[in-house]
Amino acid sequence: MSELKSMSDNTPNSPERRRFIGAAAATAAGLTIAPGVILVEVAHGRSEEQGASSAVRWGMLVDATKCATGCNDCVTACSTENGWTPVAESKHAKQAPQWIRKLELQDPLTQIETNLPMMCQHCAEPPCVDVCPTGASFKRADGIVLVNRHTCIGCRYCMMACPYKARSLVHESLNDTQKADVPRGIGCVESCTLCVQKVDRGDGNTACAEACTAAGHNALLFGDMNDPESEISKRLRELPTKQVRADLNLNLGVRYHGI
Amino acid sequence: MKRILALGAVVLTTAALAWAGADAQPKAGGAPKPVITKAVKGEQCVEPTDIMRRNHMEFLDHHRDQAVIEGVRTKKHSLKECINCHASEKTGSVAAAKDDFCVSCHSYAAVKIDCFDCHSTKPQGSVAMHPLNAETAHYKHQLAAQANSKVSAEEMAGVAQ
To answer: Which part of chain A has CATH 3.30.70.20?
Structure first.
């Protein structure tokens, strides 16, 4: 128990330490590359040597009341960041990658329409991890559910187990079109990674949430659900939110408001 | 009759030996030796060259598990950094042409690499814009001279950019 205590004290993600690092990085990382031009490096949440910490739980709040009809910006941003071909451009639409999808739902009784993005819900108890025969599907310490492509055999049990239809298989060779930061390839299952490359870089946001904010909708909010001071935790305390298929008791990392 | 048979046997044996001898002679040069081009960036690899040649797969294997499972993304021993330094100037890749860094040795050793089914073979961004090229542009022509290869006007234009 004492070990756990000391770990949580030393964690670089404690708010005080993070604020200090942020301030230090803001002053130290400002590098003048030419007169009048300053290159400011983004403050890192944790050092390179530091692995993902279980003191953090990354999550997302989707405000469906703000999600706009016809807007597809989050999907486009995800495809650009992670280098997957959008369904419209895919040769085989049924095999197209499904990292994030935009859903437009209508209540048959009241005709009310709801818009929301659907992706990997980053469950605390992920069924995909339970069924994976090789251990390739796993949950990282900070709550991000990932596929280790080095051990994935492409059996697709996880795709069947996922209640959210969040995973897809890469059917054909990608012929070196991948992004350097996002390895993905033939014969492996893939899904939303909560932009793990951006999280590890210290960006503190995902491509979809950035795009949603840039479009002025502010329907997506990404953050640390374990940090009571984080924006997402504050909003989760204020807004009534739901988990999709809450009956499954999976403790989701993605929460929806207005559904 | 016996004599003829014996003579036949001797002739056949001699022919067979001559044929075998011809085959046993090595072809000129043998299999083409791998082309090892000096990395564009930096003077020394993260480990001594002989250790890297023998053990790079172990380093990569260890690093990949650390990076994927633990989220420890150190630069040393990262495949991405290998690519950043060793991408060929011609193709901008470590595995696009048969002379590119990774492929060159691996085809010589007849060891198939699966890395690039999933990993990009190119550094992030275009080759001309990549920081390693920007930093080292001033001595690129020296390296090119050492490698005894001609630098085309196009390549020099690429460097100037």
So the answer is: 58-257
Please give the Cα distance from A212 to A169 (Å, whole number).
26
DSSP strand pairing (A189-190 vs A30-34): unpaired
* Nearest beta carbon to residue A49 from set B72, B80, B93: B72
In the numeric block, the tokens 């901008």 are attached to: B92
Q: Is the pTM value of this prediction over 0.95?
A: no
Strand partners, A168: A190
SS3 A136: coil
Chain A CB contacts of B97 under 8 Å are none
Interchain CB contacts (distance < 8 Å): A and B: 60
SS3 A100: strand
In whole angstroms, give the CA distance from residue A73 to residue A78.
9
DSSP-derived letter for residue A133 is S
Residues 6 or more apart whose CB falls under 8 angstroms from that of A166 comprise A98, A118, A119, A120, A121, A191, A192
Domain segments of chain B as ranges: 31-122
- The beta-carbon neighbor of B69 closest among A148, A180, A187 is A148
Token digits of residue B123: 């550094």
Model ipTM?
A: 0.77
Residue partners of A259: CB distance under 8 A and separation at least 6: A64, A114, A116, A242, A244
d(CA A183, CA B124): 12
Q: What is the pLDDT of residues A67-117, one digit of tens each?
A: 999 999 999 999 999 999 998 888 888 899 989 999 999 999 999 999 999
A162-166 contacts: CB < 8 A, separation 24 or more? A162/A120, A162/A127, A162/A128, A162/A191, A163/A127, A163/A244, A163/A245, A163/A248, A163/A250, A164/A118, A164/A119, A164/A120, A164/A121, A164/A244, A164/A245, A165/A98, A165/A118, A166/A98, A166/A118, A166/A119, A166/A120, A166/A121, A166/A191, A166/A192
Q: Which positions ≥6 away from A7 have C-beta within 8 Å?
A: A55
CB-CB: which of A51, A179, A185 is closest to B72?
Answer: A51
Domain covering A58-257 in this structure, CATH number: 3.30.70.20
CB neighbours of residue B4 within 10 Å: 8
More confident residue, A253 or A50: A253
Could you say which residues from 155 to 214 on chain A have a Cβ atom under 8 Å away from some Cβ of chain B? 173, 176, 178-181, 183-188, 196, 200
